[in-house]
Specification:
Blueprint lengths: L2 E8 L3 H12 L4 E4 L18 E2 L2 E2 L15 H5 L1 H15 L3 E2 L7 E4 L5 E4 L2 E2 L13 E6 L7 H10 L6 E6 L11 H10 L4 H10 L7 E5 L7 H12 L2 E5 L6 H17 L2 E3 L3 E6 L5 E8 L2 E12 L10 E3 L2 E3 L52 E3 L9 H4 L2 H19 L2
Parallel strand pairs: 1-2, 1-16, 2-13, 9-10, 9-11, 11-12, 16-19
Antiparallel strand pairs: 3-4, 5-8, 6-7, 14-15, 15-16, 17-18
């Protein structure tokens, strides 16, 4: 039996899932193909739009969008698409996230003691805003080396936060191994066997000096984080918040679960298999993506396609000694022929390679080396699109939301 859909999305990150939801909203039948689980579980869970422009911290990202270069993904889709992408995110995340009340950036402390600008942030981190002038205690666990609370507090003070902050380290109930996964801590607090939440709160109370806010590494439950924070807050008589961590990330895992629920409710079929090739009509339209399954190559036919496989980190853009390329649909990726021109000598300099990606027109259709449209019914979304340095700008999630929403909406509309 032939596998046929109106829209086929390749890629399971935020851009791909957003594109699938947007396409489904048009009434199209949608299938999402991804070779692995979403990369959200490796992300901090913070949703940035634009944190920096010209190396300056931005209070309001929307003030700077019109000044970005013409090849930037935001310039391609426009400001309305950014707002539409955020609105769709708010629908997916619901009460899990805060920040939708304003277009301005919030400032969140990270596990390293830096302050990060972000447009949306987990509800579990809301009491930890760096703009809040209430004093704070950061608490780390002896067996969780990824969060050094005293060092993070030192860095926050050096950054000039408007409150007094100090750090303390306690032992976690049950004494997990030093190499225990963060889910070990989360599941123990979720299950709350032997009243582990209260036992933890009492240990923290010994080092708590009445600070009105107490921050923990983001391990306070995977399934019941609000209940865990509530118990700790009651015992400590303080607002409790989570500090976003590096990978693996429980806030990211929680958000991934919200997206998966949204995809199911929207009727999107999800296939976890790699794409091994594609078919065309012999001219400039895609007809199928070839999905590998148990050694077989199965055509998945569709009227419209969205490429959302990620950038260099997500392997949506790859490279070898012959150059830089997009491995799924063989879309053109412009880059200097000399590999030494891909980077600059300064470690934190303005490197060209973070901006590598496919070149798109204003409808997000990839273009070839001569500027022609690669495939009339293919659109690209997320970090596979070139023109932005997501890490330097703090713009990655926002670009994924804006381009994902625009690409999915357009792809779905094309099939109606």
């Amino acid at each position: 039996m032939a596998i046929e859909d109106d829209v086929l999305v390749v890629g399971g990150g935020v851009a791909g899932m957003t594109a699938a939801l947007a396409a489904a909203d048009t009434g199209a039948s949608v299938r999402l193909v991804t070779k692995s689980q979403s990369t959200l579980r490796h992300a901090s869970g913070l949703i940035d739009v634009l944190g920096y422009a010209d190396d300056k911290l931005l209070a309001d990202p929307f003030d700077a969008l019109d000044d970005l270069p013409a090849d930037h993904p935001y310039s391609k889709v426009g400001v309305k698409a950014v707002r539409d992408g955020l609105a769709r995110f708010d629908d997916v995340a619901g009460d899990l996230y805060r920040g939708g009340h304003t277009e301005k950036n919030a400032l969140l402390p990270t596990h390293g003691g830096a302050v990060k600008p972000t447009a949306r942030y987990p509800a579990s981190a809301a009491a930890g805003l760096a703009s809040d002038e209430r004093d704070a205690l950061l608490v780390g666990f002896e067996t969780l080396s990824d969060f050094d609370a005293p060092l993070a507090a030192d860095h926050l003070r050096a950054a000039g936060v408007p409150f007094d902050v100090r750090g303390a380290t306690v032992s976690f109930p049950g004494e997990p191994r030093a190499d225990a996964k963060i889910t070990r801590y989360a599941h123990a607090l979720d299950e709350d066997t032997d009243d582990e939440r209260e036992r933890l709160a009492k240990r923290v109370a010994r080092v708590h000096d009445g600070e009105p806010r107490v921050g923990f590494p983001a391990v306070l439950g995977e399934d019941h984080p609000a209940d865990v924070r509530g118990t700790l807050a009651d015992v400590l008589d303080a607002a409790v918040f989570e500090v976003p961590m590096g990978p693996p990330s429980l806030p990211g895992t929680r958000l991934e679960a919200a997206y998966e629920r949204a995809l199911r409710e929207a009727g999107v079929n999800v296939v976890r298999r790699p794409v091994a090739g594609y078919e065309t009509d012999g001219e400039n339209r895609l007809t199928a993506a070839i999905v590998e399954r148990n050694g077989q190559h199965i055509p998945h036919y569709a009227d419209a396609f969205v490429l959302a496989t990620g950038g260099l980190v997500g392997e949506g853009i790859d490279s070898d000694r012959d150059g830089v390329y997009e491995p799924v649909f063989d879309c053109h990726v412009p880059h200097p022929a000399d590999r030494y021109d891909w980077f600059v000598d300064e470690t934190f300099g303005d490197h060209p390679y973070p901006r590598f990606g496919v070149v798109v027109d204003d409808e997000l259709r990839p273009r070839d080396a001569d500027g022609r449209i690669e495939f009339e019914n293919l659109r690209a979304a997320g970090s596979v699109v070139g023109g932005a340095d997501f890490a330097a700008e703090c713009s990655g999630m926002g670009v994924s939301l804006a381009t994902g929403d625009a690409a999915g909406s357009a792809a779905g509309a094309d099939t109606q």
